[in-house]
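Deviation from plan, reported transparently: magnesium ion complex.
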Amino acid sequence: MTALTMQLETLRRIVQEVDAALTLHDALELMVNLVAEAMASDVCSVYLLDERNQRYVLMASKGLNADAVGEVSLSTGEGLVGLVGQREEIINLDNAASHPRYRYLPETGEERYNAFLGIPIMYRRKVMGVMVVQHHEAKAFSEAAESFLVTLCAQLSGAIAHAHAVGQVDVFRKTASSPTSAKIFQGVAGAGGIAIGRAVVLYPPADIDLVPDRQAENIGDELGLLQTAVQSVRADIRELDAKMQDALMAEERALFSVYLRMLDDNALPAEIATKVRAGSWAQGAVRSVIEAHAAHFAQMDDEYLRERVSDLRDLGRRILARLQTADTHHREFAEDSILIAEELSTAALVELPISKIAAIVTTEGAANSHMVIVARALGIPTVVGVTELPITQLDDAEMIVDAHQGRIFVHPVRRLRQRYREVLREEQQATKSLNAYENRDTITTDGQHVKLYVNTGLMIDVIRGTQRGAEGVGLYRSEMLFMLRERFPGEEEQRIIYRQQLSHFANKPVVMRTLDIGADKDLPYFSIKEENSALGWRGIRFTLDHPEIFSAQIRAMLKASIGLNNLHILLPMITTVSEVEECLYLIERSLMEVQEEEQVKINRPKIGVMIEVPSMLMQLEDMASLVDFFSVGSNDLTQYLLAVDRNNPRVASLYNHYHPAVIRALNMIVKKCRELDKPISICGEMAGDPATAILVAAMGFDALSMSAANLLKVRKAICNIDMRDAQQLLAEILLIDNPSVIRSWIEHFMTARGLGSLVRPLHQNLN
Ligand code: PEP
Ligand code: MG
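Because the crystal trials were delayed, the predicted structure below was used instead.
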């Protein structure tokens, strides 16, 4: 083994073992021991920052006086530890005592150590604590040691932040907080709104880490299920053993006897049953017993036993899978259910009883993922990227979801609940007051008409869009129809659905986008797994590789348009001229075929391309000679211009429609389209946010297309501004180089015109 693989191996081992620890105290304890061992250092200690008291508390140490742990602390400006925190930098010294910031702590017995290496433990740009390794020998630590610890601290900071944030242990008091004490979590606001309700945890089958704690409905039934599951797993293992008899040597098959011993009535099943008798449902009991054993094994010195952790977890998964297949009663959704999941696909969302879902909270995902766009269309408050949410502890917990601010309050105190109920009522009233904008033209105070279209996908969008006076459909996301099936829909199936869309908006334009799957738009029956999916096989790239799917869709659209003549076809994710040429060829061919088959003349639909990929900015002229119109997909254009994955919570704060590059690019596009005399609309989320909507209206987009949920807000904003003022605002904004300043500038403009509530939620000062 090379030194590098050895280090990597050590690193992986430490991270895995610490990850398996049940509490933060266990994790820290384990960490200092493993690090001291791996680095052959005399001391390894971890200090965590107690933010309330602004002190670094010694939380765990291998080598320093054990009594000092939890007792000794340093203020943030004190000692070398404080200096590491202040500078957010590594400090590596051969003789710590000679440094002016050295602070002698007699309780720790520290005077015997010379070399000092301090590493800040950083999480999302914040110092969480400091790790220190020390040595008798007066010799600075090597660069390799530094980088090893930096890597380790970066890996472990997440685990520390998690335990810290969930209050699993109140770290500075050494007492466990009650599982029902109030807690706040921060995520990314997806679809705005507020909800008060109870959590329903959705978890993927057989993912042992995500099984929630839940009370058994009937202990006897749960015990029965457990017994059957264990028996089935035993039978499976025996079968496996027999099957492998010829393929594996006896020693290699020894694992199966280990499994069977663990499955002995007096071993794991007995412990699980005890938990069930104490009131837990069987699946939760399996998780908790396996977790406890895994953490215990992970701490053992014996390598053989440490390696049993993965066997143990495998066994747990097997029992769980059996229990889950036996679990036939599906979860009932009560009114005001708050859906909690690690990740939720659009297809999974639309299958659920939508009317019962008050809010959605996920630990993964980001604000402009497809699921969020659909949730927004459905008017469901959504918070994503709540990375620290302890999913397994939340089932049935009371919660407030403040999706304006991306906050989740678990077990909220009564006063907060009351206050949020009031806010909810105020919001409902404000929404009602928007009804006055339902049947009005969208005209600025100086008489400029701005066309507002609706984005559709589900039938509910069509109904709401018509009710709210949309002047057409600016984007029909045809992938929704594909997501709701168990296979690719046939031509006739598609024709019927497209006809509904077109006829609901008869005499008005309906822009139908061809299938745009890939990245986060997954079909349940055609999963595309790619390392870098946003840059991968998506949109037109997929459909041009499958002309049979593309042509069937075009034929269905053309047939659906017979007699209505309001169909426009929009091509997604176009990067190159040749892609458009190929599409035009296929569309033309389908047109001829359908006319011949149906024996009718079909009007050639207008054909447009989406501007989503930055390469389009440099090719507008080339494209203009081929197509009839353009539509900006600002969601993807923002992602590609800023090189920020729109689905990655880690970079969610960088995904920003207010970025000057995005605003300037849009302005440039509109100017160019004017020169080329091509209609240009916008159908990304920027059109539906009242603040950016007035900006894009001022740029001169021919139409703004948005989810029905935002139509009235945008109309209200536009009806209350003077276009010349908005253009002046745009001119000022184009000179600003900072996204936050741009945002505040627009907010200021709107507040001055009595539109502040459209850009700032009612309760901004609530907490
Ligand atoms: C966009 O990218 O702005 C867009 C409208 O398409 P989608 O959000 O469906 O990718
Ligand atoms: Mg897009």
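The first helix runs from residue 3 to 20. We consider this an acceptable substitute for the interim report.
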